[in-house]
Structure formats: C-alpha cells, structure tokens
Design goal:
heterodimer, B: 318 residues, alpha/beta, four-stranded antiparallel β-sheet, 14 helices, 37% helix, 21% strand, transmembrane (chain A), MetI-like_sf (chain A), membrane (chain A), transport (chain A), cell membrane (chain A)
C-alpha cells in the first residue's frame, strides 16, 4: 500500500451545510406542530379542568353554569356513533369486499372507485343538507337520532370503504390463490381467509371513521339537532344533541363560565376520542402481530 | 399395455412430421442404466453434462411411461393474455402416477400452462383459453364444469410457500373444512396423515397449534404440500416448489415428490434442469409458448430430438 501515490485522509474537515439546514427545517416544522398542539391542549385543560365534576357528567344543560352538564349531549353522541357504526360497517365493508374481491376491473368499477374517492373529500355540511332533505323531510324521520346517525353514516361511509379496501388489498394474492387451489369458493375464500387477515386494517379504518363522526358538528346542525335537550334519548326516534353541538353552543355564549364549560366538554370529547384511538391501536397490536407476510 | 395411441399422446406437438424419441420403439425399451451409459459414449452429444441420475430412485422407464394411462390430455391449447398469445397449440399427455416436469427459460409459458390444468388462470382478467384439456377423459373447460370440484381433484403447490396466517393444523384442515368436514377428530387424522406424507410430522407434531408462519421456508413449503394433499387430490401441480429453498430443503422436497408419485400424478415446473432430471419421468421443454419436445426424461436429457432442446439442456441458452 505504500506505493499509493496520493493518500486521501478521511478527516477532510468538510461540512455539508445543505444537509444540516434541511434537517433543521424539518425539525422546526415538527416543533411548531407539537407546540401548537400542546398549547391548544394546555389552554383547554387550564380553562376546563376547574369545571370537570360529576355535575358536568350527570346533569343536563342549564342556563346556570354551575348546574350545567353534558349528560344529554354525551349520551346523544354515544347513541349517534353506535348507530352510525351499525349502519356504516356492514355497508362500507360490504362495498369494499365487492369492489376488491368480486367486481371485474371494468370502466364501471373505476367510475365507482373514483366517485368514492371524491365523496371522501366532500365537505360534511353538504352531507348535512342531503340528510336534511332526504332523511328529515322526505323519509319523515324528523330531527331524530336516526336521521342524525344516517347523515353521519353518509359522511364516514367513503372513509370506511377506502380504509377497508386498503386493508383488503394488503392481503397478499398468494393467500387467495392458496385458498382457491384447495377448492374453496369465493365466499369461503373471502370469509375464512381474506377478511380475517384484513380485519385489523378494517377495524382501524372503522374506528378512525367513528372518531371523525364523533367530532362532526356541521351535518348535525344542518339536520336540525338541538343544542339543548333535557333528556337522554331512549329510542332512535327521539330528538338528540351531541357533544360538538353543546361545545359550540357554550363557546358562543357571552359568559366566561360557559367558555370554561365548553373547555371541560372538549376534554370529555378528547377522552372519548383517545379511547377510540387506543381501541384501534389495541386491535392492530392484538390481531396484527400474528400476521407477518 | 403399450398402445400406439398412448405413445403418440406423449409425443411433442408443434411439428408432427418429425418423430420424437418416445415414438421410436428401440429407444422406448431403453432402460435407465443404458441411458446413463449412453451419455458417455454418444458421439455428437459428448458436450452434454450428464444429468445426475440417482440409481436409488428409478425413474419410470419409457415403457412404463408409454403404458401409463393419460391422466390429463391436452390438445390444441392456445392461451392469450389480452392480444398476447402465451401458448401455441400445446398438445401433451400427462401419464398417471408419473412425474412430468416442464422445463424452459423464464417466460416460456410453462407456468401459464400449469395453471391451465386447474383453471387458476380463470382469475386473471382478459385471459383467454382455447383448446381441450381432458382430466380422465372429461373436459375441464366445459361451461358446466364445477371449478371448485376440479381444484379439489387437481391440487397445487406454489412457487413461494404461502401458508395461511393460522396454525399448522388449521392450514391442513382448511381444505377438508371448505369441503364440508367438521369432525375435529377426523381433521386431526387427516392432518397427521398428510404431515407424515409430506415428511413434516416429526418436526411439528408437538406444535400443531403454533403459527405456520413460524416455520422455516423449507418447512412452510412442505406444509403447503401437506395442505394440498389434505383434499385428497389425484393430480398435484407444483410451480417451482423448490426455487426459493436451500439445497437441503430442496433435496427433501425432491425425495417427497419421488415418494408421492406412487399415489399421485405430479406435474412440476422447474427452472433447474438437474432437478427435472432427478425427479421426473417425463419432461416437456417449452420455448416461447411452444411445446418444443416432450418425452421420457432419460431420452430428453440424453438424446433430445430437437436442436433447441439440446441447446437448452446443455446450457447454451436460457
């Protein structure tokens, strides 16, 4: 090696400013993002924490801040997401299975696919107007839990379908081939192999869609949901309120106390959302771990 | 037993005028040992590497081959992917309880042809098949054919092992289950028999409930073979079953194929000519969608009738 004419040291002392700068920029973006989120959360906690009490959870809304609670709207929201789930899961997953497993790759399928992707981007207030016209008026459901849940189901259906399709597509074709080669029918292949393998992904999509439904206020305003109810809905035909509506109502009142109440309600909403997301993570960990392709 | 018709059906398809090795009566009677010794003496073919015939595993002699009934008979088979023709006028008989190997360079259509035999190509959009495929004399392409029933009788093992993400037992039980078997004890019986048949039982008998994905690559492929056996097929199609495996696992799979041929008709696609020479009784050479030559493996490897075949098996191309 001594005959090498020119020796280049590894210690060049060179710097790469472009690379460093890019790293810094990306880091800044992250910090900004987290700061905004933490700031928002801190404000809400600071304002809302004093108002968190059993009264908040066990009473209905009231004109007197110290007596006001979210029982009606919390229960309304739980009713809504339960029924929305019941409606959108079978329809959404069914549509996804049809599109992924049954439909031939025709122009018709591509058209449907394109429209579902577009529907996922339609503002939710538009669905609210549709719900008002179709469910509340034409079908005569009135301003009921059912009308609200159907409207929310419309909002989240494209999301459920797209997520379920994604999950189904992630199941390797070799699994389907193995099943067909063993003399399984299409139904057996989908039901016994593809769907179980896609379940974690489907569930994650469903739970995220439900979380979206839980946070929606605009379509519920459009279908005429109440901001003040003094009862818990007992059937799908009852009138209802929902947490986002309650929060909107309180936040728009002039009294400081109601702003605190709104923050407290936001905290409750966030807790429910975090629980749903934790559910999604749990499902993925529990069922996803067994499947590694 | 030796009928003229059976002999002809094994012969190649693309150019009828030229007689191939198997239809020559002198060569038909040639045994394995004479075939092996021929390689050393044959003048014009001296450049051929002698394939590694294993004397412990006698291949079916050309006589036996010719005498075997055709389990699957294919005639005038054309296959199209859209406007692209992938197979041209394939004519081939696959003898019962023998191993037939399809060899040829990548993209020559051998896998496509294999998949025609249990209609796995049905699932490909704009694939089109013409011609006749008979399983025990019955067309498997008719409009009233039950594909589900066909696939129970013609099982398949894929190139990449594809166990279901379930337990070892559930993998084996799946075939019988979809066929309607619910009795757990009987399913266990089937699992034990098939795993033993696939030479996997001793390795997994204590962990049937473990995930199949925890097995090694070679074990997974043997599990896939066991799974294919569980539906009690008559024909076993194997699409390069050992191409992703290490030599030791490959050897086990080859042993297995050899044992299975007493009970099943086996068709194997392989890139590995040594493997074709080791395990098969009949070899069919495909090139660019055409079945160039088919005949007793010993013949194809020692005395190919076609220049293309000779060039391929001697490694001049492919």
């Amino acid at each position: 090696m001594s005959d090498t004419p020119r020796k280049r040291s590894l210690e060049t002392g060179r710097r790469y400013p472009g690379s460093t700068l890019f790293g810094l920029l990306c880091g800044t973006a992250t910090v900004l993002c987290v700061t905004a989120l933490v700031g928002l959360l801190a404000t809400v906690v600071a304002e809302g924490a004093p108002w968190l009490s059993t009264t908040l959870l066990t009473s209905f809304s009231s004109r007197k801040p110290e007596l006001a609670g979210i029982l009606g709207s919390l229960m309304g929201s739980l009713w809504l997401i339960s029924i929305t789930t019941l409606i959108c899961v079978p329809i959404g997953v069914g549509a996804a299975i049809y599109l992924e497993e049954y439909a031939a790759n025709s122009w018709w399928k591509r058209l449907v696919q394109l429209n579902i992707a577009n529907l996922a981007g339609v503002p939710s207030i538009v669905y609210g107007i549709l719900g008002l016209g179709l469910f509340v008026r034409t079908l005569g459901l009135g301003r009921s839990v059912l009308a609200g849940a159907l409207t929310l189901a419309l909002v989240v259906l494209p999301i459920v379908i797209l997520a379920a399709q994604e999950a189904l597509r992630a199941v390797p074709p070799s699994i389907r081939q193995a099943s067909y080669a063993l003399g399984a029918t299409r139904w057996q292949t989908v039901w016994r192999q593809v769907l179980p393998a896609a379940l974690p992904g489907v569930m994650t999509g469903v739970i995220l869609a439900i979380a979206r439904a839980l946070g929606e206020a605009a379509p519920l305003v459009a279908v005429g949901a109440a901001t003040y109810v003094a009862f818990v809905p007992y059937s799908v035909h009852d009138e209802f309120s929902a947490l986002p509506l309650q929060i909107f109502d309180w936040a728009s009142r002039p009294q400081e106390e109601f702003h605190g109440l709104a923050s407290a309600a936001i905290l409750v909403l966030l807790v429910v959302l975090v629980m749903l997301n934790a559910g999604a993570v749990y499902v993925r960990l529990k069922y996803g771990r067994r499947i590694k392709w | 037993m030796v009928t003229h018709g059976a002999e002809r059906s094994i012969s190649l398809a693309d150019t009828p005028p030229r007689r191939v090795a198997t239809t020559d009566p002198r060569q038909t009677r040639m045994t394995e040992t004479t075939a092996a010794s021929r390689t050393e003496t044959a003048g014009p073919l001296r450049s051929i590497r002698p394939p590694a015939f294993d004397s412990a595993r006698p291949a079916r002699s050309a006589d036996e081959l010719a005498g075997a009934a055709a389990k699957i008979a294919v005639s005038d088979l054309n296959f199209f992917y859209g406007a692209n023709q992938a197979l041209h006028d394939i004519k081939l008989a696959i003898p019962e309880r023998c191993v037939t190997a399809f060899i040829g360079p990548s993209g020559c259509g051998k896998s496509t042809f294999l998949r025609c035999l249990n209609r796995m190509n049905d699932m490909i959009d704009d694939a089109r098949v013409e011609g006749e495929i008979l399983l025990d004399g019955e067309s498997l392409r008719g409009p009233r054919v039950d594909v589900v029933e066909l696939r129970k009788r013609v099982g398949m093992v894929f190139q990449k092992s594809n166990p279901f993400p379930k337990s070892i037992f559930e993998n084996i039980a799946y075939g019988p289950r979809v066929a309607g078997e619910r009795n757990k004890a009987r399913l266990y019986e089937i699992a034990e028999r098939c795993l033993q048949h696939a030479a996997l039982w001793d390795e997994v008998k204590d962990r049937l409930e473990d995930s199949a994905l925890a097995l090694s690559g070679g074990q997974q492929q043997r599990l896939c073979i066991a799974r294919a056996l569980a539906t009690d097929p008559e024909v076993l199609l194997m699409d390069e079953p050992a191409s992703a495996l290490d030599p030791a696992s490959t050897a086990r799979i080859e042993d297995l194929i050899f044992e299975l041929k007493d009970k099943y008709t086996i068709v194997i696609v392989t890139h590995n000519m040594q493997q074709a020479a080791r395990v098969s009784d009949q070899t069919a050479f495909f090139f660019q969608g055409v079945l160039v030559e088919a005949g007793a493996t010993n013949e194809i490897f020692t005395n190919p009738a076609k220049k293309q075949t000779e060039d391929y098996i001697t490694g001049r191309f492919g």
